Amino acid sequence: MNPPSFRATVTALAAGQLVCWAALYYSFSSFVLPMQRAFGWSKPQMMGAFTLGLAVWGGATYVVGAAIDRGRGRAVMSYGALLAGAGFLGWSQVNSLPALYAAWAVLGASMAMTLYEPAFNVLTKRFPQRYLQGITALTLVGGFASTLSFPASAGLLALFDWRGALAAIGGVLIFCVAPLHAWALRGTPQRAAASAPRDTADAEADGGDDQQADDATLHQALREPAFWLLTATFTLYSFAEAALWAHMMPAFMAKGRSEAQALAVVVWFGPAQVAGRLAYVGFGRWVSRRKLGLMVLSGLPLSLAIFALADQTAALLVFAALFGVANGLVTIVRGGLVPAYFGREHVGRISGAMSGISLFARATAPLATAWLLLAVAGYREVLLVLAAVGLAALVAFALAKPPQR
Fold first, then answer.
1. Is 1 part of a structural domain of the chain?
2. What is the 3-state secondary structure (H, E, C) of 216-255?
3. For residue range 201-222, what is the model confidence (pLDDT) as tens digits?
4. Is the N or C terminus of the chain more exposed, i.e. has fewer CB atoms within 10 Å?
5. Which residues, other chains included, contact 405 with Cβ-Cβ below 8 Å and sequence gap of 6+?
6. Which of 318, 319, 329, 322 minimizes the C-alpha distance to 282?
């Protein structure tokens, strides 16, 4: 059975990423108020379910990566979409908090099997000479997930009650996304020859200063300072980013901004994210991954400092642009550096171990930041602390030199 072409595979996986991110990551907030009206649960009680899902996502990434390394990427992503659909169907039937938490434990496992990381690893193995192009395309399309999620959820809620809307999302995942993944990943994947040269675009993207690493096992990677420094980089980044997302609106309210005024700024995150990825498509081949990473990672602390200290609308729009561009490109940086530093043979295990730690940080960030808020004067100080966390991520990345083997 011949596998689809590179373009067909990337197109199908990009469509799957768009729907999976919209459903699994962004849709939760659209159903908080309908469920609160139905059951009277508090927001912290319901947010705990989403936090559990993120924690399960982090805990499952290594197992998922190991399965992909053993050649089971098609099963991982196809069954992941089926599991996501089952999770939504289960969510649509909940009548108690334990049932809600159980549904989100299932959805957390499906996140680990579908969202970005497994798709990146599968592309890296199937198309070893063009994987960076595929990663860029997936993140470019995935950048529209929030744009899709909120109006789609609102439309479904207008047509059905919240239970019917969740069931409809589950149906899309089961009957559309799962077969799409199965089709896109059929056939025997390509294998990278040990001495196969990279294509011109890949080599140019390295800018000559990142030579392709020999394949390292996870055990070998764990002994490299670069592994731990990159893990620290993306863990710190994930913590600051997740804390900002969770506390975005209260931080705007603390500045005396109305919800409408806050939305007029926040709405620019998506376009800035996509614009950054489009700029990378056009000009990224002339910038090495390390240089791109240094530029991207500097955007988070700078944007947070602007948000903390500025009150003028123009400055807040600069914050939105910087944060959006950084958030849009950091995924490309991470997806390209891991195979460049440690090789492609065990990329699933190495990426899974690295991202599992950062995902736990993402899961704990909203609650940890709420505790921090009790210890400092207000959101200005919280944002400055998060800017310092972002600066620490930048320093860790600067110290993470490619392993010499």
1. no
2. CCHHHHHCCHHHHHHHHHHHHHHHHHHHHHHHHHHHHHHC
3. 344 334 444 455 567 787 888 8
4. N
5. 213, 214, 216, 220
6. 329
